[in-house]
Amino acid sequence: MVTVIISVLLLVMYRQLITEQEIQIAQHIEAEVTRYQNLARVHDRLGFAKQVSAAAGQAVFVSWHNGAHVLGAMSYIPEDLPIYPQTKEFMVFAGGSHKLFVLTGGIAQTQMGPVLIATRSDHLVTVFDEFIGASITAITMTLLLTLTLGWLFSKAILRRIQRYQELSALIEHGDYGIRFPIGGRRDEFDVVAKQFNQVLDTLESNLAAVRGVTDNIAHDLRTPLSHLRMGLERLQTLPSDQVADASAGLIEELEHCLATFDSMLSLTRIEGGQRPLEREPVSLHELCQDLQEMAEAMAEAKSQSLQINLGLDRTISGDKHLLFQALFNLVDNAITYAGTESTIVIEQHEGMICIRDNGPGIPEDCRERVFERLVRLDPSRQHKGTGLGLSMVKAILSRHNATITLKDNQPGLIAVVEFEC
């Protein structure tokens, strides 16, 4: 492409150069024709003949047929020359060396008769030859320089691609900690490398989350499954009248395992958008009042006080069942972990709902972790649960374009849910 562009530019320059030279030749001939036409008016034949003879050594070639003789720069006048302003190229031999001249000219009509007026144009051939030589040299140098730079540039690109291939092979074999190098050039490779690194960061984070979920599943289900195994072994040794009571305990353990898996499947469907939302107008006043009715008995059983403070109402569009489930999980967590004699408050003002308690709260560095699957901050697992409640809350609220934030209540915890206007 570079060679073609330069060739076109050189061709345009050559055409302009030749055109300029041709214009200069035409202007020179025109000036000489005007001059000799004027000389023919002011001189007699003898004086005109002297003028023609005097021009023999000049740049212009002038010849005049004076009777039986031809005066001027040439010994004859070619017969096929056109009448000026038409001109024509023709060749003559000059001097004893038989040097060939190329002339351009025509026959000018004067009062003394036809006069040949011509000027040399063979320098155009010289210009052409020199220009072609210079153009070939320029194109050759440009082509060599372009190929050299292109080769060096391609080698640099191939080295980076080869490096990326090597790193990709390592990633393919499971080394997810590798990142593509990013230089300071900010070129397309750096942009692609940055995007791949972001993908790898997300992949590594997701793999860590999967490992964490797997560990938590193993930890949470190992105990009930062990109880089931031991219980089934004991059933074989129990009298028939005690089998029913023992079976009830085993069924409860099994239901806890099944509830964990059901919650995980439900959470996956909600997060992936596989469960459609049954949207309808939902009053936040009514939603909070329903929460109080459902949770009041649970709070009383733990000697807790459940209060409700309602501000300006707000009606939103959403799935009432899922929203109630999400908010009830927050209230249930507060009742479960706040402890006896604590106070739990449900507050609502326009599009914001807060669940407050004065229990032990959650450390600041753990407030984001509690939204991960199967994460439970109680290592003893003395409170029954699946560890999926807050993950479900966040997934449901995200589907409703709402946010949840955990804050310190000093003492206790505040769960702030904000719906978009």
TrEMBL record:
GO terms for molecular function: phosphorelay sensor kinase activity. Its main location: membrane. Residues 155-208 form the HAMP domain. It is an enzyme of class 2 (transferase). It catalyses: ATP + protein L-histidine = ADP + protein N-phospho-L-histidine. The chain crosses the membrane at residues 131-153. It is found in: Membrane. Signal peptide: none annotated. The keyword Kinase applies. Its EC number is 2.7.13.3. The keyword Transmembrane applies. It holds the Pfam family HisKA. PROSITE patterns: HAMP, HIS_KIN. Residues 216-421 form the Histidine kinase domain. One of its GO terms (cellular component) is plasma membrane. This is histidine kinase. It comes from Shewanella gelidii.
